[in-house]
Amino acid sequence: LQRQTKPVKVLQCAVDKQFEGGRRRLHDAILRWSKATQTVRRRCEVDVVVACVAGVSLELRDATGMTAFVLGVKVGAVPICKILQAAGADVEATTSEHFHPLLVAAECGQPDAFKYLCESQSSSGTLGTHVEDCGHGYTVLHFAAINDLPHILEKALEYEEYRRVIDKHSCEKTRTSGKD
């Protein structure tokens, strides 16, 4: 996507205007997308593209501390996440509770978003840096098991990084339980 360096002033005001509840234009489009039919979803995706081209800040956070990218992951809006990533959004952004997007996808039960993030991070070589990230002491694998999300567990286990973490912790547990 080509971002204009000096967006049209009127368009900038329209896309960067703050709405009720601390949400901004991108956040509102994502929330509309999550509740919409296919036709309305396409319009929301176009709204996001327009906002990105107009130069709206992709790192604005809503009242809950989420960037538009993280909110997209939370609601499973993979097409919007792809648009935001292509426009330069920080895909490493965390929530106000320091949850990485992979944790958000697992916690919120979004297997398509989880799959997209795994594929994207695996191809860029960054997946290994987040497999042991914790949110309130839980990893992606914990959230997937707690929320009974076999699709997320299956997807995670396709990656060596996740299998290595399981092996590592299994070995540690065996060593510590053998000393009791």
Describe the protein.
- The N and C termini lie far apart (58 Å).
- The relative contact order is 0.10.
- The chain has helices at residues 9-16, 25-34, 38-54, 68-75, 78-86, 101-107, 111-124, 140-146, 150-156, 160-178.
- It has 180 residues and is mainly alpha-helical.
- The radius of gyration is 18 Å and the shape is globular.
- The protein contains 10 helices and no strands.
- The longest helix has 19 residues, at 160-178.
Task: Please specify the SSE layout and strand pairing.
Blueprint: H1 9-16, H2 25-34, H3 38-54, H4 68-75, H5 78-86, H6 101-107, H7 111-124, H8 140-146, H9 150-156, H10 160-178
Helix pairs in contact: 2-3, 2-4, 3-5, 4-5, 4-6, 6-7, 6-8, 7-9, 8-9
